[in-house]
Amino acid sequence: MKTQKTTVGSINSDMLAFTAGRDVELDMNLIVADCIGTAAHVTMLSKMKPAIITAAEKKKVIRELNAIVVLAAEGKFKIRLADQDVHLAVERTLTEKLGDLGKKVHTCRSRNDQVAVDLRLYAREEMLGTLDEAAALISALLAFAKKNEKVPMVGRTHMQPGMPSSVGLWAAAHAESLLDDCALLVNAFELNDQCPLGSAASYGVPLPIDRELTADLLGFSRPSHTVLYANNGRGKLESIVLGAMSQVMLSLSRMAQDLMLFTMPEFGYFTLPDELCTGSSIMPQKKNPDVIELVRARASRVKACELAVYDLVKGSAGGYNRDLQDAKEPFMEGIATTRACLRVLAPFVQAIRVNKEKLLAGFTPDVFATDRALELVGQGMPFRDAYQYVKENLGELANMDPVKAILQKTHLGAPLGIDWELLKDRASAVVETVREERRVIDRAVSKLMKG
Ligand code: ARG
């Protein structure tokens, strides 16, 4: 059996490849985070009493960390199998450049708290991006809804025709669902906003490190408290974030399903422009809504990612276990998939064409049965009697004017009672939260990286 020398000792080559797993590729997504986390750590080391490194040495390390960030942006920073992961690749590079100084960087730190902080730095960027993309889709939906506020659409329950409704209500409802998902994402963001750095292997260190300082330097609201939960929180945090992502996907999947139905020629409520559809290799006439079918499929994928992480940690003993490494792949995949779906749907919604005639043609007299019963109530008949009367005389129902029918529904949240300002304010609050969080993060990180 072949033994391979690694950045930290020797190991059988097959064991090395097996344990490193996909980290060598996936950790490419964590290079910047690892450099920022390391910059905060060495800054803290330089302020300890007695200091582990001098202020001048700290500057040198941060200069090299910035160089790594530049290399990474050019696609030139390499993580070797012998490094196992980004953490040791960065430490090796620092040692190559700075000699003994590079060897001091890992003082009072473990790869366990290092990866935990990297993932939180990664997660916060990704969540802010997700919120931005969700806000863009919400605003596309709201614009579409407002434009079609007075366009009637048969409202369905059990998929069967129910009552007069509007295209505006349909679209505004999907926007509102996403607004709730944004609230979950913001919640996940707040839970993520705690710095695990300094928890080391899971049990802290015997030297007086300053965890408040590193949290602050990185732009986190606070350090996570117990050093053990800082590590046990790995995996849990990922499943919280993916939980919010899978709620986003649930909203998107339901909207996609509606769109598939409503774009069927049998409905024809909406049409999709050709450039958003795919063709068939055999049927020349085909224009298929593959995009939304895949959004539906990917909702399952994201949920599977969430469950994969949940399953990994549910039986995990306290303190770091290597199993946690395997949460990285579903974590990154689940986030990337959700974001891709949000991005593809915003222009999709903007391009939907509404076919008023087809929508009106869906109105048969029975759709007005409930409205008629309530009309009788207005004339003094008890509701159950009116209901019974209409039920027994469905044949008498005349086809009422669908536009008039929805114009009458003006109470809170009804087709003509949608509070557009309320929905828009919620969407703006999302954008504002992202802007504010980015401001805090960017200010902290750029100050930190100036050394
Ligand atoms: N690549 C590892 C992970 O993602 C880093 C932490 C390794 N820690 C350890 N004790 N082996 O979990």
Fold and architecture overview:
A two-stranded antiparallel sheet has the order 1-2. It has a two-stranded antiparallel sheet with strand order 3-4. The protein has helices at residues 13-20, 23-26, 31-47, 55-73, 86-98, 100-104, 111-147, 167-192, 211-217, 227-262, 290-314, 328-351, 356-361, 369-378, 383-392, 402-407, 420-449; strands spanning 3-6, 9-12, 152-157, 160-166, 194-195, 222-223, 270-271, 353-354. The chain is mainly alpha-helical and 451 residues long. It starts with a strand and ends with a helix. Helix content is 63%, strand content 6%. Helix 7 runs antiparallel to helix 17 (420-449). The protein has three domains: 3-107, Fumarase C, Chain B, domain 1 (Orthogonal Bundle); 112-361, Fumarase C, Chain A, domain 2 (Up-down Bundle), CATH 1.20.200; 365-399, no CATH class. The protein binds arginine. Arginine binds next to helix 7.
